[in-house]
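Protein: HTH luxR-type domain-containing protein
Species: Acetobacter cerevisiae
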Amino acid sequence: MTNSEFDPQIITINDSLFDDINESDTQNDILKIIEEIKKSSGIENLTYAMLSSIPQQSKAPPLITTYNENWQELYLSKGFLKDDPTVNRLFESALPFEWSKIVCRTPREQHVMDLSREYGVGESGLTIPLRGLRGELGILTITGPNAFNPPLKSCYARTFSQVGLYLHEWHARKAGLRSEQDIPRLSAREKDCLALCAAGLMAQRISEKLGISEAAIRLYLSSARTKLRSQTTCGAVAKAIRLGII
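Structure follows.
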């Protein structure tokens, strides 16, 4: 199954899989969930990594990946992290980006990209920057047989931003980076707006239901996104659910 067979407006991931991520104990548990996500979304590979804020680091970050073992071993043994253009671009962009838009700046970067294709990583890729509650930088990359062009890009970016946030927080908890103080304090209105978004309501319907203006709804959602360190409302909803805020 390829991503060309999916209607970009209806790509969905079973909500139970997000709960499964939260309840997972081991990386093997997570990999089993990722395999289910791959089947339902048409992607070929998914990789998540927690990164430090120093792009020049050569030490490999903890990885959760479906890439083949030969590529994983080569990537880590050769220290490709510092020459990976998808990682280097991450420190320059806060938004998801397609690999087709990347311009390799050095022969080493081009070498890494060429080798990745030789090792079957995927013809096309989409990389999504992630930020944790304490500002930890993470990366989620998906690959597939076809280009992630509009409208596929926006659909996959929206869906997998949620996947990335769940994996990011799961990893942070396992690493001992979370405490009660990390849970943002949202106002009652911010919680109401997020909860109604989670139920599928748009701004106009939320406005009618709460009896306040659409401008106020947008303001509350913007504030909630800021507090939850999420670029999108979908991501904020996912994080709020994961943290038990709504």
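Remarks: Residues 1-9, 53-60 have pLDDT under 50 and may be disordered.
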